[in-house]
Design a protein that fits this description.
The complex is a heterodimer of chains A (about 140) and B (about 140).
Chain A: H1 17-21, H2 31-58, H3 63-71, H4 73-101, H5 105-134
Chain B: H1 4-7, E1 10-12, E2 18-20, H2 34-65, H3 67-77, H4 80-107, H5 114-142
Antiparallel strand pairs in B: 1-2
Helix pairs in contact in B: 2-3, 2-4, 4-5
Classes of the chains: A mainly alpha (about 140), B mainly alpha (about 140).
Chain lengths: ~140, ~140
């Protein structure tokens, strides 16, 4: 299926294949990202079930009743754990999506920074809100 | 070839001739299958849930802000449009949850055989439907 209208490929870089590959760093599959995604996924299994149940529990509650619920120590801690695991997992996941689809360096770096900035901001806003409700 | 990335797209065939490395065919030539569809749905629901965290943030911040802000947030979320969006988020959440377990099983090296993969895929779809319906039934009963 070699299309005939494209010119024959040539290589102007006078380096061996090995020399070119060396020093490029890892193939971006460092285990830390992969592992952190799995760890947060496992943490989110019980935490997301807890969250879903807490939403049903909080349904139709007033603000004070909600503050009372979230203010119980276990609930405060569980909500903070949920926020940490959720937003970390989200940052890791969206990073992969952006790296897969955005090929231009400048756009990719800009989108990564923007998305991670928004995620950090939302995570902090959630955590502060939970603490404010609790105390 | 101007840079290394492009140069790496050029290789030699068995006759030693320089050739462009072949790229894999694009998406539209493939028939939708259980494997590819559940995979892309995992990514899509993940992105949707990312948007969902904005709603979560709004909900918590409004609750922490004051009675008026919370009342506004509740009225938006409990409107028909709000509930419809919320319904979408529950589908996405339960799907991502169930298919996430499937991915963790694969990470542990289990369930790679094709029949197993098809069975677990159907199981994920069924579990998503059951959990979503259960959530909303309980939700409306409590309400």
């Amino acid at each position: 299926m070699n299309s005939s209208n494209t010119p024959d490929p040539t290589v102007h870089i006078m380096r061996s294949q090995l020399g070119r590959a060396r020093g490029l760093g890892s193939a971006k599959i460092g285990v830390q990202h992969w592992w952190a995604q799995r760890v947060t996924a496992i943490a989110l299994l019980p935490l997301s079930l807890y969250f879903v149940l807490s939403v049903i529990r909080l349904e139709g509650h007033t603000r004070l009743q909600m503050a009372d619920f979230i203010g119980r120590p276990w609930n405060t801690v569980l909500y903070l754990c949920l926020i940490a695991a959720l937003f970390y997992h989200l940052a890791l996941g969206l990073q992969v999506v952006i790296e897969d689809y955005v090929h231009k360096d400048a756009t990719r770096i800009a989108s990564l920074l923007a998305v991670k900035g928004i995620i950090f901001f939302c995570a902090l806003a959630c955590a502060v809100s939970v603490l404010k409700l609790a105390f | 070839m101007k840079n290394v990335n492009e140069a790496l797209m050029v290789g030699r065939n068995t006759e030693g001739k320089l050739v462009r490395r072949p790229l894999s065919p694009h998406l539209q030539v493939y028939k939708p299958q259980m494997s590819s569809m559940t995979s892309i749905a995992h990514r899509a629901t993940g992105c949707a849930l990312g948007a969902g965290t904005l709603v979560l943030t709004y909900w918590l911040v409004s609750a922490a802000s004051g009675d008026h802000a919370f009342a506004v947030a509740q009225s938006i979320i409990c409107s028909w449009l709000g509930l419809l969006v919320l319904f979408g988020f529950t589908v996405a959440l339960f799907y991502h949850f169930c298919n996430g377990i499937r991915h963790l099983a694969w990470d542990a090296g289990k369930g790679f055989e094709l029949p197993d993969m098809h069975r677990s895929g159907k199981l994920v779809l069924a579990a998503t439907a059951v959990l979503t319906i259960l959530f909303w039934i309980i939700g409306f009963v409590v309400w």
